[in-house]
Amino acid sequence: MATSMAAALAASIPAPQAAPTPTAPTYEAIPASMSKVIDIEAEIPITSIQLDGMVVSKIIKHSSEAQSSIVHGLLLGLDLDGILEVSNSFPLPHHTNDDDEKLAKNTGRYQASMLRSLKEVRADDSVVGFYQSTTMGAFFRQTMLDTQVIHQERLRHGGVIIVHDVSQTARGNASFRAFRLSKEFIDAYKKRDFSSQSLIIHKLTFSSILEEIPLTVRTNPLLSAFINTISQPHSSPVPDAPLGEPLSALPPTYSSLDLGNGSVTKNLEHVIEALDNYKTEEGNLAYLSRQIAREKARADAFMSKRKEENAARVAQGLAPLPEEDMNRLFKIPPEPSRLESMLLLGQIDAYAKTLEGTASTSLVKMFTFVHVKCSHAGGLRTAKVGVGNWLAAGNSRMRTEEADQALSRRLLRAEAGFNMRSFISLFVALSYAISAMALAHPSVSHRLHARRQCSPRPASSAVAASSVASSSVKVVPSSSIAAAAAVAASPSSSVAAAPSSSVVAAPSSSVAPHSSSSAPTTTQAPSSTKTSTQSSAVPATAVLVGGAATTGSSSGLSFLTGTQTGQGTFYGTGLGACGITNTDTDYIAAVSKLLFDQYPGYSGANPNSNPVCGKQIKANYQGKSVTITVTDRCEACQLTDLDFSPSAFSQLADQSIGRISGMTWDWI
Prior knowledge:
Helix content is 38%, strand content 18%. By secondary structure, it is of the alpha+beta class. A hairpin with a 2-residue loop joins strand 20 and strand 21. The protein is flat and about 120 Å long. It comes from Bondarzewia mesenterica. InterPro entries: eIF3h, eIF3h_C, Expansin_CellWall, JAMM/MPN+_dom, MPN, RlpA-like_DPBB, RlpA-like_sf. Its main location: cytoplasm.
């Protein structure tokens, strides 16, 4: 029987097969040991947040790359047994006014792409909140609240906000705080009612908008071991350092004692700006309140008049007029929202607290710095308040761990002693003064002013011994004193020899130069006990030492003739004891107190008329030399030490050394 072509083709097609039934998904049971930890239904409330060290680094890096703007990002992690563990994060694109619409459309697509990529590499892809950077603690903004309300409805446990203060990080304090919206604020936000009555009902203030959650930072053992390794002193074969001297991998620094006047000035500017904004907002609210009161008064007057008319019509037997819709006749505006003014109050409070902390820390730093400067003005700074020793050993320095711990304890005790809330007006005035000083003298460091506050200390035993005449002090004729004065004017002249006479033990201050004649003479002050005379057969060379004539033996120290050897330091210049105002770029120096006060020809009345002022000295150190002019007086310097200006010191050695030993100098 013949078959058609269509039938043959139909017979050749395989019969359709039934679609395979999909296999039912299998669910793995949660182990019994984890059933109480894993919260599937989000019933366990979040009590604390654990921030991973990698997340901290990412947030700080993202904030530092965009210092002039506020940055945002998403937080990823998982909540276990009431602890929200934030293990990862990624930044969100920054929006500007120009491309706000374009970037806003792509933000959702970017987030979905990032989460999909994280899921492919088996990383945490559960969004638990977002982070935001801020400056000086002021993070109360409408956009932040709107974003958190959206997260509150979509994320588990409502999500959290982590606020990072960039200004605190710049001062060495990494500031991270975690918040979530309070139930009262969410209720008022859903009703879109922030009137005065609503704020009273919900008991809302700027401090009750957010609830702070305890936050801890977790670092892995490898990072902790690395930080401990670089912070511990260790022995290192440095060529310029003595063998066996412990050196730290972290270089010593005193930058933490910097007052940071710029941040105080900026903080004050923010406070003033926030106060102006709050005043403007309060003015707008007062205007709207008057408008509302005016419209309500008109409506009440209309209603009273209508009631009187209806009463009169009823008395006349007429039908009363129908009541009209008051909302149609009078457009009474709704009561304005108090949310913006409440947020501005939060910003003012944040700025004030930041200013309080900055002022208290600055006072402690000023106390520490002045104490250190008064203890040792320049060079070797051995801190009595616990600042680490700055030891000059060639080009290397060391800061001991015990000194760091003592400094921390002292700073904590001093900072705890200030009641800043009781003296906030004092600190604001102090901040204004520091800011004005920095603006008036931008080139002068605050170390100059701290140095001028140092009170003279009692002379050390070595200085006292040299300044008090011993049994070798002679009373020489006036001609010998004149010869010594001539030696001071011309160091190349020979030293006059005078025979020894009766010995007088008297303080050097009791012998004062007196210029009553053309030749300088010496008047002996009363007091002093005569001792036994020495042999006059052997002549002695009279050399003027601090205004007193001493024998030129090896025991006496001559610093007016020949080449002298001493130590060199540097300081912040300014108005010196000679009445000359200098800058750090001038080649000037301060001589020791003993040399300045008892220089020949100086009466002690007016330091500006001291003959040593304007004298030139040539200093040499390791093949380098510099010529400087004497313009100041050093309180803590020894007999032959010189305290240079920073530029003059740089001609001899690097300023990081702090003090040079073995320096030589000569009068010019």
